[in-house]
Structures are given as C-alpha cells and as structure tokens.
Design brief:
With about 450 residues, the chain is mostly helical. The chain has helices at about 10-40, 45-70, 75-80, 85-110, 115-120, 130-135, 140-155, 160-185, 195-215, 215-220, 235-265, 270-305, 310-335, 340-345, 350-380, 385-410, 415-440. It has 17 helices and no strands.
Length: about 450
C-alpha cells in the first residue's frame, strides 16, 4: 500500500491512545506550571497578572528554541529503537545532553536584558520591571529543564511513561504549594508577590530532572556513561541540523503568539490580562493534541526504523483522528461556556468580560491547531524537520499576523480582530502541513542517519 493516509485499524487507534494518554498527562502537567502561576497571581491584581504573563511569555519564547533543537534527537531515538539499534539510541541521547548544556549560553544571553527589550517593544511601564525580574529568576531552572527534556524523549521512545507521569504529578503538587506560599507568604516564608511564582517554577523545573533521574535510574543512569563516538563533530552537526528547523519553527510559532500578546499589551493592561486568561485556557487544551503529536512521532518513527511503511501511515492517520477529534469537543465547550471558563482565572470584571469574548474565537482555531501539531509530529517522526519551518513562515507570518493587524487595527475590531487573525494563520498552517504529510508518506520512507 502506498496511500498517503491509510485507514487505521481499531488496534492502531487503541495502541496510539495507550501511548498518547500518559504523554498527554505529561503535557497537561507541564502546562499547569504556567496555569498555576496565572491563577495564583491573578488573585493579586490585573497588573500582577499581566506582569507574570509577560515574563512567562519571554521565558517560553526563549526556551522554545532550545526545546526544539533538542527535539532533533526525537526521530533518531524512535527510529533507532524501531531498528533495535541500542548503540545509536545511546549516542543520540548523549548528544542531547551535550546540546542541552550548550543551549544555556544563548538562552541566558537573551533573558538577561529582557527588561530593556520589553520596554523597547512598548509594553506598559508599570509591569515591565516585574516581568523582567520573573524572566531573570527563571534562568537557573533552564539547564535542568533542558536535561529533563532529553530524559523524557529517551523514556518516551522506550514507551517508559509511568516514571515521567509520576514525576510531573509530584512536581506539580510541589509547584502549587510553593507558588501559594511564596506569593502570599506562609509562616516563616515572606510574601514575595509575583516574584514568588518565578522562584517556585525555577525550583520545580530543577526537581523535574532530579526526581525523574532518581525514579528511573535503571534506564537513565546508563545514558550518562559516555560513548566517545557521541562527541564526534559531524554526527553532532547533523543532529543539530535536524533540530535547528524545529527550534526555529517552535520559536517562530510562539513569537507569532507573543506578537499578539505584545499588541494586546499596547492596547492596555486589561486587554493584556484578558488575552493571558484566554490563551492559558486554549493552551491547556492544546496540550492534548500536542501529547498525541509526541506519541505519533514515536509510533511513526518506530515503524520507519522497522521498515514498516504501512504501519507508519496507519500511525499517522490514528494520530490525526485522535488529535482533531478531541479539539472538536473542546471547541464546543469554548463556544458554549466562555464566561464560566474565564471566571476560573479572574474575578476582575473588565478582564472577565473581554476574556469571555476571546474564548469562543479560540474554539474556532482549536481544530486547526490540533491538526497542524499532529501533522508536524508525523513529519518529525519521519525525520522531515525543515518543511514545517517553511509552512510556519507561510502560514503565521504571511497569512496570520497580517490578517491580525488588518482586523485588529485598520478595521477597528480590537482584541477580537487580533484573535481572528490567529484563526486564519492556523488554518493555513494546518492545510499546508497535511499536504506535506500526504506527499511524504506516499512512498517508502528511509531511516534518518547521522553517523
């Protein structure tokens, strides 16, 4: 069979769901760090909420590039296990650790002067100092977080998901308690306000790495016994070449959303806070298809490593069906109960009213968002990391953002116009990526080699 989209069997859907559900739990758990920050700080004031939102945007925007580069080892790990090549698997993981350490240099250099950058971008003067402090405090947590990404990708490839899930649950409980204690004060702990949420998140990111390494030391400790071949220059360069397009792709996508946040900030504190509430809700549900995309990359990569083209096509179809199906359900929820969802984040009436008009718009782009992220996961599993970058540029930067600017400012639709531009951009990205998946999976697919 050489059909680009092959009808999955029930067993394919069940197998994908078994892998995807724990990955989704992990994705949701990671998203909850930002959600808890927002919900706790949102009890202080709209200014505090906007400051933490802006600082969080800065950290996510910078760290996304590092995460993307590290995802370059994802197809190498998955395909190596599919081919039962344990040596290539170990070397790929070790190259991930080397890249994690190297990525701290650009991450730190970009985050240290973030206050001046935010001021130049015209963000409200009353929230820039707090946002910059939030970002700077987050720097020490990035290295262990990058290390955790490598550990997680290795365990996902091995289908060893229980240790990841357990670690994320434990650290989320810690983050909630620490967030509340450090923001509002508790006993001998002083009240730190919005800055307390940054310290809680930094400690939590460090614990992710430490606890996961301890919990599954049997599988993970051997990865630190370095193979001299892992530090060979050309395989490292080829690994970076796989990861760089993913890094730029993730960063450009997040920057596109960040530009919308900056434009909201230019409209005032209330639009910025309302945007943060709505985007947090949309981002939380997005973790489900993002988790499905991770699982799809694993299944597609395993099948390609094993030389099973039909299995790769069935895995791709299964992931697309599960990801899009869930987002249809969340779209109905967003459109039907926007005010109730917004009230979980804020009691400030102005923020609540505006957020309730943005959440239904998010409902419309949910389906396109689910399709595009799973399609990107299919391509990553196949080792095609450049095409999604080109698609991102075309969809977000040539369709989405221009549409947002026209609707939001020239035609006077304000915050709602900016969000309708996101709908247009995500539709374009989803359409382009699905076409690329159909082309990529039409014939035989070769395993990616870096040695």
């Amino acid at each position: 069979m050489t059909l680009p989209f092959e009808k999955p069997r029930l067993a394919d859907l069940e197998e994908m769901a078994r892998l995807a559900i724990p990955v989704v739990v992990v994705q949701v758990g990671m998203m909850l760090f930002g959600v808890v920050d927002t919900m706790v700080v949102g009890r202080l004031s709209s200014e505090a909420l906007a400051a933490v939102a802006l600082g969080h945007v800065a950290v996510i925007t910078i760290s996304a590039f590092g995460i993307g580069v590290l995802l370059g080892i994802d197809p190498l790990l998955n395909q190596a296990l599919g081919a039962r090549d344990r040596t290539a698997f170990k070397r790929s993981a070790q190259r991930g650790f080397i890249l994690a350490a190297a990525l701290m240099i650009p991450s730190t250099l970009f985050l240290l002067p973030i206050g001046a950058i935010l001021a130049l971008l015209g963000q409200p003067a009353e929230i820039v100092p707090l946002a910059a402090a939030y970002a700077r405090i987050s720097i020490p947590g990035l290295l262990p977080f990058y290390g955790w990404v490598v550990l997680r990708l290795a365990l996902q490839a091995m289908a060893r998901l229980k240790p990841i899930v357990a670690t994320v649950i434990v650290v989320n409980i810690f983050n909630l308690v620490a967030d509340w204690a450090l923001v509002f004060g508790a006993g001998p702990i002083p009240q730190l306000g919005p800055i307390g949420s940054a310290w809680a998140s930094t400690i939590a990111r460090t614990l992710l790495f430490v606890i996961l390494l301890v919990v599954d030391r049997k599988d993970l400790v051997p990865l630190f016994r370095f193979d001299r071949e892992a530090i060979r220059w050309m395989p490292l360069v080829r690994t970076v070449r796989l990861g760089l397009p993913i890094g730029f792709n993730l960063q450009l996508e997040i920057v596109a959303f960040s530009v919308i946040a900056l434009l909201m900030g230019g409209m005032g504190t209330i639009p910025m806070a309302a945007h943060q509430v709505a985007i947090n809700i949309a981002s939380l549900t997005f973790m489900v298809p993002l988790g499905v995309a991770q699982a799809t990359a694993v299944r597609v990569g395993n099948a390609i490593g094993a030389g099973d083209g039909d299995g790769a096509r069935r895995a791709a179809s299964s992931g697309l069906i599960l990801g899009a199906g869930f987002m249809v359900l969340t779209a109905l929820l967003f459109i039907g109960m926007p005010r109730m969802l917004a009230r979980a984040y804020t009691s400030v009436e102005g923020v609540l009213l505006l957020a309730a008009t943005l959440i239904p718009i998010a409902g419309f782009f949910q389906v396109f968002d689910g399709l595009q992220v799973v399609a990107a996961g299919v391509l990553r599993g196949a080792g095609d990391t450049r095409a999604p970058l080109v698609v991102n540029i075309l969809g977000f930067w040539l369709v989405g953002l221009p549409t947002s600017l026209v609707l939001g400012f020239r035609l006077g639709f304000g915050p709602q116009g900016l969000w309708w531009g996101l709908v247009a951009g995500l539709f374009a990205v989803a359409a382009f990526l699905l076409a690329r998946v159909a082309f990529k999976l039409r014939g035989g697919i070769e395993r990616v080699q870096v040695e």
